Amino acid sequence: MFKTLVELEVERQFPSQRRGRPRLLTFDDAYDDILKVLKTGMQWRQLQPRVASHITVFKTMQSWVQRNIFQTAYQRLLKLYNRRRRPKYHCIDSSFVKNIYGRDVVGRNPTDRGRRATKLSVIVDDLGVPFSLIALPANRSDQISLQPTIESMLCTPIHGLELYADKGYDSNSNRRFCTAKGLCDRIFKRRTTNGRRTHAKRGVIERYFSWHDKCRRLIVRYEQKANTYLAFTFLHAGTRLSNLFFPNQI
């Protein structure tokens, strides 16, 4: 299902031309090679396409990233998912991504002796389906990252839905912002003890990050631009959502 949405978006933004040489790299070959790089984490030069070179696949990936192909296709798939079921609640958290070649959206990681890294801020529902994915510098605190993460949600949040967050997001401004957006904040308060029941609902986002780390390309950031890393992230999220809820649809 997700692959079909990506193909439709590619055909809309890159229509076939009658003049010039025909394209040797088909959509299926390009999509499968990009998915292979995502899952294995291999270098582009190690890729052995069937009809074209690895440089052609890399340039095709970059052209898709510039047009936000994967994000647009995932947003359409997320709308179909919302028609099928209503989320029970949302949960927000962030995770640090080690940086190797990244040049933008990097900062000193306080948990890794000040090495430059990127922070991935995510909002998921009760089944671990991401509704918001943004990249931030590693030195950006959670209190500041809550508002831009909510504003970048791909679907309008349902009024009155609960949003669970840990104590790092606790602030009066964040609570007022959640109320203004129609969300019922369940942000843990500082210097208080929370029970297992509330922590159990937050476990869904921890499981999402474990699914996220199954793709070796996402564990460490090798891409120079953050948009390329986010494109890989949307590709993984769309593939997983399509396999879970739309397995029999092409």
Q: Helical content, roughly?
A: 40-55%
CATH topology of the domain at 87-224: the name is: Nucleotidyltransferase, domain 5
Rounded Rg: 19 Å
Work out the number of β strands.
7
Give helix and strand order, one letter per element, not per position. Answer: HHHHEEEEHEHEHHEH
Instruction: Classify the beta-strand content into a percent band.
Output: 15-25%
Report how far the terminal alpha carbons are from each other. 5 Å
Low-pLDDT segments, ≥5 res: none
Number of helical segments with 4 or more residues: 9
Mean pLDDT: 90
CATH architectural group of the domain at 87-224: 2-Layer Sandwich
CATH class of the domain at 87-224: Alpha Beta
Helix/strand-derived category reads: alpha/beta
Sheet bearing the most strands, described? 7 strands, mixed
Summarize the structure.
With 250 residues, this protein is an alpha/beta fold.
Topology:
Elements: H1 2-13, H2 27-40, H3 54-66, H4 69-84, E1 89-99, E2 107-108, E3 116-125, E4 130-137, H5 142-151, E5 162-165, H6 172-180, E6 184-187, H7 196-212, H8 216-219, E7 220-221, H9 226-245
Parallel strand pairs: 1-5, 1-7, 5-6
Antiparallel strand pairs: 1-3, 2-3, 3-4
Describe this structure in words.
By secondary structure, this protein is α/β, with parallel strands linked by helices. The chain is built from nine helices and seven strands; from the N terminus they run ααααββββαβαβααβα. The chain has helices spanning 2-13, 27-40, 54-66, 69-84, 142-151, 172-180, 196-212, 216-219, 226-245; strands at residues 89-99, 107-108, 116-125, 130-137, 162-165, 184-187, 220-221. Strands 1, 2, 3, 4, 5, 6 and 7 form a seven-stranded mixed β-sheet that branches. Helix 1 (2-13) crosses helix 4 and helix 4 runs parallel beside helix 9 (226-245). The longest helix is centred in the last third of the chain and has 20 residues, at 226-245. It is globular.
